[in-house]
């Protein structure tokens, strides 16, 4: 049973229908697709760490942040299906809310780390080596987690459950927005979105300049890198841009229930967009890698072999010791895994 002190705020009569229609579909979709995708992403990060590649530390931390939020989705699903009525205690509400915000801002932090790491690897492959070590990656990861945990501790000083006009106990929702949330939202917009976006854009603009000038990179590979970089920036803007813009709008204009009722649906659509980040991260930063595709193909073929479903003829470029071709040279059965060496400038372009 929820134990809370009713907040001194208006009880806005807001239509929560979007939570019973769109939200459950998104939560189920992200959970079903995001859980296996992030587990594979975690495995890829482990392979990178095993190969002494600092990129693996950032990928693992990014994936852990996504998985923590994915594990909280069943609670949010039950919440919205019960017409926004939180039936657990306030502590669990705060934990689930923190996991939501941790996913957003820790993901943003490690996306920036990955983009800067790729920038240094491609644009300055022989400089700043001290920033591209396992030790440096661990220190940066600790700093990011510590910063976000300290920020979220601020949440525990405020009540995060309240009762709405329908006598439902709502979690992490205040309408109209409270005074103490204004400065927090401005901080989230500037430090959690705007500054990281400039870092991301600067890093990838530098990468694109080098790729464009490179004569040793194939045209097909250049197109692939450009598409990946453009997709990364686009997904960053789509997943996080609308939400943070609406945070600022709410902080500036939401002073009464009338405005809160008007902005409720679009605000929650933008919040749902941030959830897609859990699916976009592993797709962009892991499965776009050629070496990861090879590892994934090997894993898949191994599973099919165990099930006795592997066909005699396959279109895969990297089969895992198929029994139908025992005389195949070993160098064709065991291709070079791109994770076994540190990136040079050209190799880093291919691993973006």
Topology diagram in text:
Elements (H helix, E strand, L loop, with lengths): L16 H34 L4 H27 L8 H34 L10 H20 L7 E3 L5 E3 L7 H35 L5 H35 L3 H19 L1 H9 L4 H18 L22 H4 L11 H6 L2
Antiparallel strand pairs: 1-2
Protein name: G protein-coupled receptor 68
Pfam family, one: 7tm_1
Keywords: Cell membrane, Disulfide bond, G-protein coupled receptor, Glycoprotein, Membrane, Receptor, Transducer, Transmembrane, Transmembrane helix
Features:
Rhopdopsin 7-helix transmembrane proteins; two-stranded antiparallel sheet; disordered N terminus
Q: What is the name of the CATH superfamily of the largest domain?
A: Rhodopsin 7-helix transmembrane proteins
Question: Helix content range of the residues, please?
Answer: 55-70%
How far apart are the first and last residues' alpha carbons, in Å? 49 Å
Mean pLDDT: 79
- Please tell me the CATH architecture of the largest domain by its name: Up-down Bundle
Low-confidence stretches: 3-9, 312-344
GO molecular function: G protein-coupled receptor activity
Domain G-protein coupled receptors family 1 profile: 37-285
Membrane topology: Multi-pass membrane protein
Family: Belongs to the G-protein coupled receptor 1 family.
